[in-house]
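Reply to dn_fold:

You asked what the input looked like. This is it:
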Amino acid sequence: MTQVCSECQVRDRSICGSLSDPDLETLNRLGRSRRLEKGETLLWAGEEAVVCANLLSGVLKISAATADGREQIVGLLYPSDFVGRPFAEEAEQSVTALTEVELCVFPRKPFEAALEHHARLERLLLRRTLAALDEARARMLLLGRMTAGEKVAAFLLDMAGHLGQRCAAGATTFDLPLTRAEIADVLGLTIETVSRQLTKLRQDGLIDLPSGRQVTIRNRHGLQERAEAA
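and this is what came back:
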C-alpha cells in the first residue's frame, strides 16, 4: 500500500475503503492531491468534465443555473463523497468550494479505464451512486412536505451529522459552510424565514448561535422532534 493512501483521512469511508491493494494501487497511480480555496470551482456546467475526485476535507456545493441565469444549489458534498460523473463528456452542474477544500483528483478518462478493468471498484461506485440517488429522492419528498421550521431543523441535524464536533455537556458545534441566503436556496425558503426559524430555535433552547456562522446544538432530541413534526 502506498503512503498517500495509507495516510488518507477518509479512506475507510470513501470508495477506496473496501478495495484490495492492487485496485488501490491503480487509483494511487492516477490520483493527485489538489486544494481549492473557498469560492473556487472544480467543474463548470456545460464544460468538458476532465476530472473526478474523492473529497478529503471541506464542503462543496453542486449548482445549476435557472433559465433566467440565477444559481440553484442542488446538492452538497462532504468528506468521503465522490465528485464528478464518469462516462459523461460534459459536467451537468457546477461544483464549487464552500470552504477550503482538499481533494484526491483523478483524470476522468483514465479513471473510466480503471473502472472497466476493476469490477470491484465499478460496483463500489455504482452502490454509492445509487445510495446518493435514494438520499436525494428521500430529501425531495421530505422537503416537499415539511414546514419552514421542520426544514431548518432537519438541515441543522444533517450539518451536524457531517461536520459536528462533540463539546461540553454533549452539545455539538459546527460552522455553517453556507450563508443564510444559500441555506434559503437549498431549502426553498426566503432569507428572512431562515433567520426567523434560527432565532426561534435559539429562543426555544434547542441551539445556540455563538458567533458568525457557528451553531451549537444544545438539545439534539428536541431538534429531532422539531424536524419530524410532520
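The radius of gyration is 19 Å.
Hope that clears it up.
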